[in-house]
Design brief:
The chain has about 425 residues and is an alpha/beta fold. The protein has one domain: Metallo-dependent phosphatases (Purple Acid Phosphatase, chain A, domain 2, 4-Layer Sandwich). About 25% of the residues lie in helices and about 25% in strands. The chain contains 10 helices and 19 strands. The strands form 4 sheets. Strands 1, 2, 5, 6, 15, 16, 17, 18 and 19 form a 9-stranded mixed sheet that branches. A hairpin with a 5-residue loop joins β18 and β19 (about 420-425). The longest helix has 16 residues, at about 390-405. The protein starts with about 25 loop residues before the first helix and ends with a strand.
């Protein structure tokens, strides 16, 4: 087995603490699944969003950033794990519960499985997206085989898996810097637990073939969504975590070069068909800051131009970043954390890491073009997703307007505090 050594991935501390870190199928079988599923594409008006609910050429996706249901959140759920953790500032996960309660008030334990999603449940029911995709940034395991020297280890007890199905999550991207926090045993149990719960997995596996395999979600009468999950060492993923031919791990990008894009394009060529929406979910970059490296922009553009990707679903940043629409394809460079246990931890307050966005993206399967891009602002409080206030929604609107200006996007703030992305002239 490969060495479990990795470079540290631990943020600094404020007055109290800052410990912010941010049956399975083979590649061949999933490719066959992607090829064999029937596709039905209907004609009709794609420009009138009032017809979105009945126009079978339109598919709406729900995307969000990192969902971390481990550590403190795991402790308030019905089946908490052993609270022992291996961090320099805290040794008991209940410490994160106490920090959150000191900041925002008591959390009655145990909470029910749907509690953590809060107001997001009603928003999901309102929009009724065809597919719900998250980046799950925690291991789901009983394993005590924590990754040495990592500093931050996220774990949720497998019996708490109903907290994901409570929100109807269809698929979890797993190529991130926390899925192996509790070793290869923890990864294997994570994969098994999600699969048993009926949640599709992508980006990690028992070998390279499984880690690279796409997740295919058929939308009856509309088409399908094909999700590919990639990780980058720039997000803190150790090189040792890369899946090998006969060893488990994550789907780790070697780099963001043209050569890598060409390899992805060859893989996509085997699975994409007309009527399919192809999503590349990428865990990349640091936790803080609005700057988007030119290498990320070039990589995203090439994935669209050369590999036929329809949506870039970027994450790792603890706060939302600017959004680009390139050739009618949306690029979310950083979704921002959607749910975590960071309440009461000081540092980086100017980024408003407690605020997040629910991304609802509608594409036309007949053209692959973006039709509608709506966002619902939220705020995490007492380990629960809450609708943002008017002031909080306006803060996010200002940020998206400022950061999107350089990329040609703007945002409309609606009376209901929801945000609509605008692009082009």
């Amino acid at each position: 087995m490969r060495s479990m050594h990795r470079r540290g991935f631990l943020a600094g501390a404020g007055q109290t603490l800052l410990a912010l870190a941010t049956p399975l199928l083979s590649m061949a079988s999933r490719v066959e699944e992607a090829r064999d599923l029937p596709i039905k594409v209907a004609t009709g008006s794609q420009s009138d969003m009032k017809q979105a609910s009945i126009d079978s050429s339109l598919i709406t996706l729900f995307l969000c950033g990192d969902v971390m249901t481990g550590r403190g959140i795991d402790q308030v759920l019905p089946y908490p794990s052993d609270p022992k953790i291996y961090e320099p500032y805290l040794r008991d996960a209940n410490g994160y519960v106490r920090l959150a309660e000191r900041e925002n008030g008591p959390i009655s334990r145990p909470v029910d499985f749907s509690y953590i999603w809060g107001d997001a449940i009603e928003e999901l029911e309102r929009v009724a997206p065809d597919v719900r995709i998250i980046n799950l940034e925690t291991a789901v395991t009983r394993s005590n085989d924590y990754w040495p020297e990592k500093g931050i280890n996220y774990r949720m007890h497998p019996d708490n898996i109903p907290c994901l199905t409570a929100a109807g999550i269809d698929c979890c991207a797993l190529a991130n810097n926390h899925v192996l926090d509790w070793g290869y045993t923890g990864l294997t149990e994570t994969l098994k637990t999600l699969t048993r719960a009926g949640v599709k997995i992508v980006g990690a596996g028992r070998n390279r073939g499984e880690a690279k395999a796409p997740a295919v979600m058929e939308i009856p009468g509309k088409g399908r969504v094909i999700l590919l999950s990639y990780g980058s060492v720039t997000s803190g993923i150790p090189w040792e975590w890369a899946a090998q031919k006969d060893e488990p791990g994550v789907n780790l990008l070697p780099d963001l070069s043209e050569k890598t894009v060409r390899q992805i394009a060859q893989e996509v060529e085997q699975i994409k068909q007309p009527g399919a929406i192809l999503v590349a979910s990428i865990h990349w970059g640091g936790n803080w800051g609005y700057h988007i490296p030119s290498a990320q922009t070039a990589f995203a553009h090439r994935l669209i131009d050369e590999a036929g990707i329809d949506i870039i679903h970027g994450h790792s940043s603890h706060h939302p970043k600017g959004i680009e629409v390139y050739r009618q394809k949306p690029i979310i460079y950083g979704c921002g954390d959607f749910l975590n246990d960071y309440e009461g931890i000081s540092g980086h307050e100017t980024y408003r890491g407690d605020l997040a966005l629910m991304y609802f993206i509608t594409l036309d399967t007949s053209t692959g073009k973006l039709i509608n891009f709506e966002m619902t602002p939220t705020r995490t409080k007492r380990f629960r997703v809450n609708l943002a206030s008017e002031d909080e929604a306006r803060w996010l609107w200002n940020m998206l307007m400022r950061e999107g200006k350089r990329m040609g996007t703007r945002v409309e703030l609606k009376k209901n505090n929801r945000l609509m992305l605008r692009w082009g002239r």
